[in-house]
Known about the structure:
Two copies of one chain form a homodimer.
Chain A: E1 3-13, E2 22-38, E3 42-47, H1 61-70, E4 78-84, H2 95-110, H3 117-132, H4 140-145, E5 148-153, E6 158-162, E7 168-174, H5 180-185, E8 190-192, H6 193-212, H7 215-221, H8 228-231, H9 238-247, E9 252-255, E10 262-266, H10 269-286, E11 290-296, E12 303-306
Parallel strand pairs in A: 3-4
Antiparallel strand pairs in A: 1-2, 1-12, 2-4, 2-5, 5-6, 7-10, 7-11, 9-10
Amino acid sequence: MNKVKVHAPATVANLVCGFDVFGMALAEPYDVMWVSLSNEPGIRFTHIDKYNLPTQPEKNVAGVALMAMLENVPGHKGFDVVIDKQIKPGSGLGSSAASSAGIVVAVNHLVNNIFSREDLVRFAMHGEKLASGVKHADNITPCIFGGITLVRSIFQLDIVPLTAPPMYVTVVHPQIEVKTSDARQILRKEVQLKDAIKQWGNIAGLVAGLLKEDYGLISRSLEDVIIEPVRSMLIPGFDEVKRSCKEAGALGGGISGSGPSIFMLSKEEATAKQVENVMKDVYTRLGIEFRTYVTTVNYKGVEIISE
Amino acid sequence: MNKVKVHAPATVANLVCGFDVFGMALAEPYDVMWVSLSNEPGIRFTHIDKYNLPTQPEKNVAGVALMAMLENVPGHKGFDVVIDKQIKPGSGLGSSAASSAGIVVAVNHLVNNIFSREDLVRFAMHGEKLASGVKHADNITPCIFGGITLVRSIFQLDIVPLTAPPMYVTVVHPQIEVKTSDARQILRKEVQLKDAIKQWGNIAGLVAGLLKEDYGLISRSLEDVIIEPVRSMLIPGFDEVKRSCKEAGALGGGISGSGPSIFMLSKEEATAKQVENVMKDVYTRLGIEFRTYVTTVNYKGVEIISE
């Protein structure tokens, strides 16, 4: 085969209490990407969306990820890549990760799957480095593996897929800009030991809740005393959205990645839709444009659609 | 009934990466305690061990725990308590927790089990407060619940029992004194965010490893970049013990509670015995007296032996 189409899903990093370690893939939205082998050397990008992303490979997150991959592929020639980006850059929904993860999964398929999923995460992390200045893997990993994932360790990469009970995810993306690099810079370099202890109680609780399918424990563990109090200041309406969504029956939730999107988990679809209404009400009242999604956890990760 | 005998087990707090949140009960050693209802008001302690612990109830950890409990028991009269302490105070093996947990479980049995296990944890924490100045529950909880436990939250007490695959535990107690209060005071009040992130990766990994019965993941997650580097300085031979035990096949381990005891987990009993030999070699060479145990996880917690 010499051509492949993939869907690369949006992802929610951190899952409230697990900054830089937890991530979750969503069924929607997703980017669509077509990748073709070419006899003409070089990597050529075409964007058919409205985001004016760079097309020079070394300035494009997918390009950087692909170049890192190609250092390990002997005898390749060229690639034509067409991207229809549906995950808005800067949304906090892993837009850059979808590009990086999508292209490495697509090209791995074209070269007969010679790389493991861990290898693909390592390549795709080069795209994240370009996008945010940091080689993080909390979006890349669920994007490639699907489901909910733990990155236990990033150097000596150690990825742990986590099972979970059925859950619905409601997302609101208020159309304001929060850059990942800015959202990282406002974090303090040190945290109080007493806060760290609360955080690791919640992290352990969330893993146990997911694996034991204990919705109550999941709900109680979706608490962040370290990152959210700082980052939420960048997101107008955050406190009200969170409080109102929980009152509407959501298990809990918080900032998706570095924001500004906010996600909420619900046990039932009806609750997830009610949560969407709550989110719409808040941002309509605040006069901030927004986009919402009611979706589920995506257990496939980047998906090969056709060849 | 008006008399009960209990075994109150030793416990390992923290489990390396989970300072103040994880704990594990051991099959050995355990304290033996006899508690009798009496028509003569008051609480009377008799120690039949060599440790000269205080017998005034308000200075005795079991006494303080019992008094906290009795505020909630109408119409009680008096108690005679005999303790044969086998868990040496100051060992890092939850000696004070065994006293506090043992007495509240025993008395709950005598008053027809009117209290939940969570209630008993709350009462017993008063004993920990007397012993160490802090109302912590990471020894109390596994002592009462048995097995491996997570204390997700201490105010709004939230206890999560964790399943685990079969494991053997080797413990060495070098006969030096490390006071819990001292071991807490040398900890920094702030931790680096990057270290906290490593720690929560390991905490999440340990919970996932235990619940998924993945020995490799358990082993990789038994890493502490925050507390151990500081506290281990108080324990001569620590680094050598840890390195040598892992070379001998242990999954991993570290300081038990605030030390000076060191524990190691192994998948096989033969490995656990080999690990014991390694520990003996190190402390024999260092000229430090020690005591070792090769035991298993205790899933019963404080056990009623006879009435």
